[in-house]
Amino acid sequence: MTTVKDVQKRQYHPTEAWSRSNPMPNSTYGQPIEILLVEDNPDDAVMTMEGLREGKIRNNIHLVEDGVEALRFLRRQGQHAHAPRPDLILLDLSLPRLGGLEVLAEIKRGDDDDLRRIPVIIMTGSRREEDILNAYKHYANCYVTKPVDVQQFLGVVQKIEDFWLTVVKLPRVA
Q1: In this predicted structure, what is the pLDDT of residue 91?
Q2: How far separated are the first and last CA of the chain, in Å rounded?
Q3: Residue 140 domain flag
């Protein structure tokens, strides 16, 4: 059984891509899937990356810790000038500087069609009905509540990967 301490043994750093290089035939066009993880909780970030590492699809995970940095990454500003356009965004709601709902609203209402087409998965600890309604009001593609149990958490991440990266056909963006 994997524990948080087992998962934390791996070192992950915000804004650095973390790559899983196990090639899989279902990877879109043979390229790794680019995932933007917007998560300020180090334990949740590590467990999410671990769950994706154990998955089936080759991916590059880009971690940012707050909403302002998420938008800079998506707009390719500052240190993110050469950031790839993500194929999928995993977005927490409770973020410093700019909350997840504000980030989601900015992604989905902006002028950038490529940005608006990126699926955004809300992955949060909040079970509040108001948060769920607001996420869908701002066009979240799905809303997932993070389990507290490590094994369940890893299982949820793997189910997200199974659905969004093997069942669903994602558009390639520029």
Answers
A1: 96
A2: 40
A3: yes
